[in-house]
């Protein structure tokens, strides 16, 4: 089948070399069906953030093709929600204002002010931060800013969602609570989500497939099917035999390729 007819996100022969001559991504070929969560792990410097930046349209130079349902990913009809590592919130705007700006820029909710306000209220509530609407980002904790960044990404109702280690700064209990909240929200709006994490457990708890980037740019990428764990109740995943087996598989790949 020609790549232009494959549904979902199709990454073909993607290669990124920064101006410094630094090869950030060897050659990436991935076909990711629409409405899935794909977790990405890899050693530091393996190109995880670079992959998200290329899809988000933040890299001027790359070679290869990025298609979503047959159209170039950077087509103006395709909305991409990004949760960057530093949350990317505008410090001079309130929480409400940050989400409002993102919706205006992307044209989400059209020009309908009532619809926009309803959506902002909905996504702030769903992330458990309705009471923070009038606060400024710098007055919030790291965990609260992460929730705002995720609410903002959902509020534009993107087809593609890119999350770069969104829970990295959190303690274990808050992290687990946010993983559950993220999954619930994703079920309400199942975008095609790429979720970078350093945490092997998190990759298994959240991903339908787990993409493992190698340390060497010439080595191949491993993609593990994780449907068995993904289909379980969230609270039952960690204690399951499938979770344990998946951990072993990932450790093996890490020993071979990291
Ligand atoms: N703006 C840049 N200019 C030059 N080289 C860069 C730039 N950004 C990243 N790199 C290099 O590209 C490679 C991949 O970086 P990237 O940030 O994508 O890795 P990563 O897997 O996300 O790492 P980490 O887990 O540490 O966040 C690294 O060798 C990095 O030094």
SS field, number of helical segments: 9
Count of beta strands: 10
Main sheet record = 6 strands, mixed
Biggest β-sheet: strands ordered side by side in the sheet:
6-7-8-3-9-10
Euclidean distance between termini CA atoms: 33 Å
Low-confidence stretches: none
- The proportion of strand residues reads 15-25%
Radius of gyration, CA atoms, in whole angstroms: 18 Å
What series of H and E elements makes up the topology?
EEEHEEEHHHEHEHEEHHH
The amount of helix comes to 25-40%
Bound molecules: adenosine-5'-triphosphate
Structural class: alpha/beta
Q: What is the general shape?
A: globular
Q: On the 0-100 scale, what is the average pLDDT?
A: 93
Protein name: Taurine import ATP-binding protein TauB
Domain ABC transporter: 9-240
InterPro entries: AAA+_ATPase (IPR003593), ABC_transporter-like_ATP-bd (IPR003439), ABC_transporter-like_CS (IPR017871), ABC_transporter_ATP-bind (IPR050166), P-loop_NTPase (IPR027417)
GO molecular function: ATP binding
What does this structure look like?
This protein has 9 helices and 10 strands. With 258 residues, it is α/β, with parallel strands linked by helices. The protein has a domain at 91-157. The strands form 2 sheets. A 6-stranded mixed beta sheet has the order 6-7-8-3-9-10, sandwiched between helices. It has a 4-stranded antiparallel beta sheet with strand order 2-1-4-5, covered by helices on one side. Strand 4 (63-68) and strand 5 (71-72) form a beta hairpin. Helix 2 runs parallel beside helix 4. The radius of gyration is 18 Å and the shape is globular. Residues 18, 20, 22, 24, 42, 44-50 line the site of adenosine-5'-triphosphate (ATP). This is Taurine import ATP-binding protein TauB. Pfam families: ABC_tran. Residues 9-240 form the ABC transporter domain. One of its GO terms (molecular function) is ATP binding. It comes from Paenibacillus auburnensis.
């Amino acid at each position: 089948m020609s790549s232009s007819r494959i549904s979902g996100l199709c990454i073909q022969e993607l290669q990124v070399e920064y101006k410094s001559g630094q090869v950030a991504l060897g050659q990436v070929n991935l076909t990711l069906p629409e409405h899935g969560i794909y977790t990405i792990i890899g050693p530091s410097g393996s190109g995880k953030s670079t992959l998200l930046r290329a899809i988000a349209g933040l890299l001027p130079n790359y070679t290869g093709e990025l298609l979503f349902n047959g159209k170039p990913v950077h087509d103006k009809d395709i909305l991409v929600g990004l949760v960057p590592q530093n949350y990317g919130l505008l410090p001079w705007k309130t929480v409400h204002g940050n989400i409002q700006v993102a919706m205006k820029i992307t044209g989400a909710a059209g020009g309908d002010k009532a619809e926009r306000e309803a959506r902002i209220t909905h996504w702030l509530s769903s992330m458990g931060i309705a009471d923070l609407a009038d606060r400024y980002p710098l007055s919030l904790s790291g965990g609260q800013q992460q929730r705002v960044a995720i609410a903002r990404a959902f509020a534009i109702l993107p087809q593609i969602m890119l999350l770069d280690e969104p829970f990295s700064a959190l303690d274990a209990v808050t992290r687990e609570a946010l993983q559950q909240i993220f999954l619930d929200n994703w079920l309400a709006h199942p975008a095609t989500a790429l979720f970078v994490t350093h945490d092997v457990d998190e990759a298994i708890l959240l991903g339908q497939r787990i993409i493992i980037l190698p340390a060497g740019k010439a080595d191949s990428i491993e993609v593990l099917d994780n449907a068995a764990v993904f289909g379980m109740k969230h609270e039952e995943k960690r204690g399951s035999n499938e979770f344990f087996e998946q951990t072993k598989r990932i450790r093996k790949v890490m020993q071979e390729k990291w």
